[in-house]
Amino acid sequence: MNTASQKQLSLLRKLKLKKHREQLGVFLAEGYHTIEQMVINKKLVVDELFIDFEHEQSEGLVSLLESGLDAARVYGMNKSTIKELSDTEHTSGWLAVVQIPASHSLDDLLALISSAIEQQTVDPITSAANPILLALDEIQDPGNMGTIIRTAVWFGVQGILLGEGCVDMWNPKVVRSTVGASGFVAHTPAKLEEALLKCHDQGWNIMLLDGSEGATPLSSQLPSGPKVWVLGNESRGLSTRLKEIPEFTRYRIERQANGVESLNAAMAMGIALYRSVNFS
Q1: Chain segment 233-263, per-residue pLDDT in tens
Q2: Whole-angstrom Cα distance, residue 30 to residue 113?
Q3: How confident is the model at residue 186, as a pLDDT?
């Protein structure tokens, strides 16, 4: 196994910053299980793997190579170097440079979903007649973003619209929180109001998660057909402008007991997706 060069170490340091990730078109993934899932999913291209020298003969490395990782792209480094590069306090000793997949335009994403429905290749977990998109309005916490992406994959969501002000989905903390689900769901940077109105015009139900009074209880009968669930900022919630658009419907998750003011954003989205998939 080759030793990581100074040039490679310089690249790894740069990938902690968004501007360098965007310039270079790659991001940093950390942790064996995250990297393993990416290799197994084959949705992303792992350019290079960097490991603590102590993992050179490990079963984990053997498994990754058997899953298709190129042995020539595996590099070793000592424990102190990998600790310096790690985004965690206690590093596992596994880092990977991964290519950022191309984002889709909204028109392309909707066309892909329509084509998948016609060809009956939509994920079998979700009904072909009821595809689901997520739209995120200023989700800024990396842990929340990663959990939302992972939850979206679990429930067969077809795409994620990323509104302005959202945390970079290739941020190391976001990637780590997805535990390998990064890149599995198509993503589209979007001006949310414009994008959601376009979806509505094409027959999608726009469904806002809003905890305020006056919103429709989530336990009520949900509409059939394609859905876009919209989730707002962790502290401020949805933007006022989105809540004022009459074509959009607000839904709230009914509180069952006192003691907390609100639900975590990722938890709320998970509940909404479960309700959509199982009871629509």
Answers
A1: 988 889 999 999 999 999 999 887 777 777 8
A2: 31
A3: 92
The dotted CATH code for 106-279 is 3.40.1280.10
Residue 63 identity? S
> SS3 string of 11-42?
HHHHCCCHHHHHHHCEEEEECHHHHHHHHHHC
d(CA 123, CA 184): 12
Picking from 213, 253, 211, the residue whose alpha carbon sits closest to that of residue 232 is: 211
Q: How confident is the model at residue 280 (pLDDT cuts 50, 70, 90)?
A: low
- Neighbouring CB atoms inside 10 A of 14's CB total 15
In this structure, CATH architecture of domain 2-99:
2-Layer Sandwich (3.30)
| Alpha helices, H only, 18-104 | 18-24, 32-41, 59-66, 79-85
- Domain ranges for the chain: 2-99, 106-279
Q: How far apart are CA 237 and CA 138, in angstroms?
A: 9
Confidence of residue 67 (pLDDT cuts 50, 70, 90): very high
